[in-house]
Write a structure and sequence with these properties.
It is found in: Membrane. It is built from two helices and twelve strands. The chain has 250 residues and is α+β, with helices and mostly antiparallel strands. It has a domain of 154 residues.
Length: 250
Amino acid sequence: MAEHQRIHPVHDPEAPQKPTVPLVTRGYSQSDRGDPAEIYPPFRRTIPMSDLKPPKTRSCWCRCLCWTLSLLTLLLVIIGIIAAIIYFVFQPKIPKYSVDGLRITEFNLSNDMSLSATFNVNITARNPNKKIGIYYESGSRISVWYQITRLCEGSLPKFYQGHRNTTVLDVALTGQTQNATNLLQSLQEQQQTGSIPLRLRARVPVRIKLGSLKLMKWKFLVRCNLVVDSLAANDVIKISSSKCKFRFRL
């Protein structure tokens, strides 16, 4: 019985090989139905470049704010330097004021129940500065009050007060108060105690002279609390207390 021989193919590595052709075009894949399916690239979110940049309006606002703060700081520094120079060179001191005398020439109740008053007030103004003069300008106003009622008013004369100068002023004040029956009764009751509180207010426009330089106009504000023993006309009025406060402003 003859033996059947099996013949197996032998692979020859030196034999030329046929190029293989892909069944599906590059960029496509085989679907379940056998049709090629298109392959899409992965999704990538794009961010607009405008979102990454800060708003221009905010940048301009910050720049303007920085410039403004810088200018204000520079201005404050310059003002501070000028004030320091003035202080060390001129050594300014506050003027002093006092009420030294009071004379009443009229203080009576008329038939129409109005109170007429005429006061003569002696005011002493002292300038203790060595290099600073004071120009007292026109437009000043001085008044005398009892509680909330203004009894009389007047003004200071226009004059110049030099260095280390003391000036005594005699100022006439006049006034008239309507429906003053209750006011006069209150004053009479207060006069029986020998202590009548009065207030003197003064607002005076002035100009300061530093050496030969005349500065802009300022306002001197003076408040004096007085206590007198009587308000009788043509009588000697004694001032038992006189306290004055001074401040100034533009």
